[in-house]
Amino acid sequence: MESKKKGSHFFATLSRMKYIERWALMRNAREETLSEHSLDVAVIAHALCVLANRRHGHHVDAERAALVGLYHDASEIITGDMPTPVKYGDEQILNAYKDVEIRAEQRLLDLLPEDLREDYEDLFFGGDDAEEIYMRKLVKAADKLSALIKCMEEEEAGNREFRTAKESIWAAVQRMAADYPEVSDFVDVFLPSYGKTLDQLLGRD
């Protein structure tokens, strides 16, 4: 019983996501924090899973996808956000970073009381059944869509800095859409609304 009352730094550490800035190598019209990105990924991942279930015959856990999305980049509290050109520019660097990422996730889990670790470990690492794997692919797609939306918003703000990144990410999203029809649905139905004014979104324009 005593061990369950021992203090834990886990959630206080997670709260530091708001201090991690993304797109560190880019000039931003508006800075984006890891907290903001994680919320966007959670919302989009949930939507992709709902689309998968309603329209494409899957039985993926949309609520779980939202949680996985919230935690998907939590390791960056320790590692920081490695810029995409650096992370994916060299296979050796990518493999080394993945190892660092896993170690960072484990370090975060070690901050939890022992009786809670299994629940959160499942969010970080997950299982290997088919629908679980499919769900995690949709979380990755949500991550790309969030990045694409960021590029669109920067472009809308008159910042040309994100032009090349937008082209690259858009190509990646199109490849995902070819394999995952719910991604194509999101692109067709929801993506065009991003960048509109509040009046336009609410039908007041």
Automatic annotation (TrEMBL):
Domain of life: Bacteria
Full protein name: HD domain protein
Keyword field contains Hydrolase: yes
rRNA processing listed as a keyword: no
Keyword set, alphabetical order: Hydrolase
GO molecular-function term, one example from the UniProt record: 5'-deoxynucleotidase activity
The HD/PDEase domain, residue ranges: 30-157
An annotated GO cellular component: cytoplasm
